[in-house]
Design goal:
single chain; mainly alpha; 56% helix; globular
């Protein structure tokens, strides 16, 4: 699975949470965590983008602590307008990384070099 696909499934995950169809299980159901977490959080596109591990620098800690302080439930999903706001921020942040990866991919030279005379 490439990074772009992983991040697109993250956007889809947060869209389901925003729609009230799903909950957030953190590491267990975060598509990039499942591949990159491994206790050290290495190589994840989110960590590369923020320059920080464990989703620091993303809206995730706000979402996480809001749930601990306000809802105290095992399943993190949308319970109140603040939840919805943070979940939306998280979805937008994932989308921002998708856009970033797409721009990077388009910037890379594509095999055949048009300036090569052979
Ligand atoms: Zn809430």
């Amino acid at each position: 699975m490439n990074k772009l696909k992983i991040m697109k499934s993250s956007v889809a995950k947060w869209n389901r949470i925003i729609a009230g169809e799903s909950s957030d299980g953190g590491v267990v159901d975060c598509p990039p965590c499942r591949i990159y977490y491994m206790l050290i959080c290495f190589g994840c596109p989110i960590a590369e983008y923020t320059g920080q591990k464990f989703c620091k620098g993303s809206p995730y800690p706000r979402w996480y602590w809001h749930h601990i302080e306000n809802h105290d439930k095992i399943r993190r999903k949308v319970y109140c307008p603040t939840c919805l706001q943070y979940a939306t921020e998280m979805r937008d942040f994932m989308q921002e990384i998708v856009d970033h990866l797409e721009a990077e991919e388009n910037a890379e030279p594509k095999g055949d070099d048009p300036t090569d005379p052979s």
